[in-house]
Design goal:
Blueprint lengths: L2 E5 L4 E6 L4 H10 L5 E6 L5 H13 L2 E3 L6 E5 L6 E2 L1 H6 L7 H8 L1 E5 L12 H8 L4 E5 L2 E5 L7 E3 L5 H11 L5 E5 L5 H13 L2 E3 L5 E5 L8 E3 L4 H14 L1 E6 L7 H10 L2 E5 L2 E6 L8 E2 L11 H9 L4 E5 L10 H6 L3 E5 L2 E5 L4 E2 L2 E3 L3 H10 L3 E2 L1 E5 L2 H4 L5 H7 L3 E5 L2
Parallel strand pairs: 2-15, 3-14, 6-7, 10-11, 18-19, 22-24, 23-25
Antiparallel strand pairs: 1-25, 1-26, 3-5, 4-5, 7-9, 8-9, 11-13, 12-13, 15-17, 16-17, 19-21, 20-21
Helix pairs in contact: 1-2, 1-7, 4-6, 5-6, 6-7, 8-10, 8-12, 10-12
The structure holds uridine-diphosphate-2(N-acetylglucosaminyl) butyric acid.
Length: about 425
């Protein structure tokens, strides 16, 4: 089993490069099921979730190849098998976003039901309720949902929560529906706007993506396109946390500061200085961090995906912080690992009380998911001695070069391959 070994490090100095967003590229790949043709994506991160989505596209009948670093070529020959098998959905629940495009292109989709995960139960009821309004009917048997619609028709869809996945599934189903669909209380994440830009380039008529009201005028035809994936704001948050914890000065080359306003505000309250740089985002920290309270919310609030990094920072901040999780009930599991590293954190329901320590203490710990795993790596920069992080394959799902990039800015981090 591979391990990542981290020794206390800092200050960090130099440039890190922000890759394309995992949570955008996976949806763009799914969207390529909408129309036959050749697609070319740029700024694609070399992560294992992209490999899983490529497997899914291949299982449906497409070909996927990487002609060079950061590029992905997808060929959709048409006549796809409209199915997402359990073996792939189980590995990556984002696979369920193929439902919308398959319904739009083939009038049916057979998709395995995802189970729960480390964040707790992860239902897809909102996805189903929303596409049902467009005329979709469902049968559920043997762990699969079989969705069918002879004719998709536009509808008003009011989401009870601005779910990212549900917004994306409806948007992709609605691009070929007859008439207009309006999604109210839509998710506003930059990755939704990126998907809409991709779909519009294909010939869709989508207005308002990135706001709470998205309107989609159905079209008869879509074509394949070339597109550059939006930078990953969560990866950028990882390096902001690293510089906050280890001190120093970093430029996050390629980052989009305008997608991280709230994050910059929060880390600013903690004492990390940031400013927009011609190359991306500049960040500096030269004092011990300060405690702050925070609560996760849908975009533009503090993203739940930032929280493991913010908790890692607050573990070594001066003072007591209260962190509230409002998106995923079970997203505090990694806290036990931080506690093994000497952090003083108490969780109660969806709240955590963090009493900052001057330093953590290196220990063997385990990754449970992508972001929590990366947060352990950055927390370990402030841990005396050596931290051994097990199961780093979780990190590989969302990061292509975390260890190498941290090394390049002076962190003592290595990956031991067995
Ligand atoms: N929810 C329901 N029913 C639904 C859909 C969602 O109850 O039908 C609930 C969820 O259980 C959760 C909340 O609504 O409590 C928000 O879920 P959402 O649908 O917004 O999340 P998602 O689309 O499943 C994406 C990202 C996550 C990120 C969340 C929130 C991808 C592949 N995943 O998930 O990212 O945390 O939005 O921003 O885009 C990650 O990158 O590691 C990751 C988990």
């Amino acid at each position: 089993m591979d391990r990542i070994i981290v020794r206390q490090s800092g200050p960090l100095e130099g440039d890190v490069h922000i890759n394309g967003a995992k949570n955008s590229v996976l949806k763009l790949m799914a969207a390529s099921a909408l129309a036959p043709g050749d697609y070319l994506l740029h700024n694609v991160p070399a992560i294992t979730d992209v490999d899983v989505m490529a497997e899914l596209l291949r299982a449906m009948g497409m070909t996927v190849a990487s002609p060079g670093p950061g590029d992905l070529e997808i060929r959709n020959p048409g006549g796809l098998t409209p199915e997402a098998p359990y073996e792939l959905v189980e590995q990556m629940r984002a696979s369920i976003v193929v439902m919308g495009p398959l319904l739009a292109a083939y009038g049916e989709a057979r998709v395995a039901l995802p189970g729960g995960d480390d964040f707790g139960p992860r239902p897809i009821d909102m996805h189903l309720k929303a596409v049902e309004l467009l005329g979709v009917t469902f049968e559920s048997a043997h762990g699969y949902i079989h969705a069918r619609a002879d004719n998709l028709v536009g509808a008003r869809v009011l989401l009870e929560f601005p779910s990212v996945g549900a917004t994306e599934n409806v948007m992709m189903a609605a691009v070929r529906a007859k008439g207009q669909t309006v999604i109210e209380n839509a998710a506003r994440e930059p990755e939704i706007a990126d998907l809409a830009a991709f779909l519009n380039r294909m010939g869709a008529k989508i207005l308002g993506a990135g706001t709470s009201t998205i309107s989609i005028e159905g079209v008869d035809e879509l074509t394949s396109v070339e597109h550059t994936v939006v930078p990953d704001r969560i990866e950028a948050a990882t390096y902001l946390a690293a510089v906050g914890i280890a001190g120093g000065e970093l430029t996050l080359v390629g980052a989009r500061p305008d997608h991280m306003d709230m994050l910059c505000q929060k880390v600013g309250e903690m004492g990390v200085r940031t400013s927009t740089d011609p190359d991306g985002l500049w960040a500096m920290a030269n004092h011990r961090l300060r405690a702050v309270d925070l609560a996760t919310l849908p975009y533009p609030g503090v993203a739940t995906d930032y929280k493991p990094f913010l908790v890692a920072m607050l573990s070594v901040a001066d003072g007591v912080s209260i962190v509230t999780e409002n998106i995923f009930s079970g997203r505090f599991r990694y806290v036990d690992e931080l506690i093994r590293m000497g952090a003083d954190i108490r969780t109660e329901g969806h709240h955590a009380v963090i009493r900052g320590r001057a330093a953590l203490s290196g220990a063997p710990v385990r990754c449970h998911d992508i972001r929590a795993g990366a947060a352990l790596v950055v927390a370990a920069l402030a841990a005396e001695g050596e931290t051994e992080i097990r199961d780093p394959d979780h990190i590989d799902r969302g990061y292509s070069d975390l260890v190498e990039q941290l090394q390049a800015v002076g962190a003592d981090v290595t990956r031991v391959r067995d």
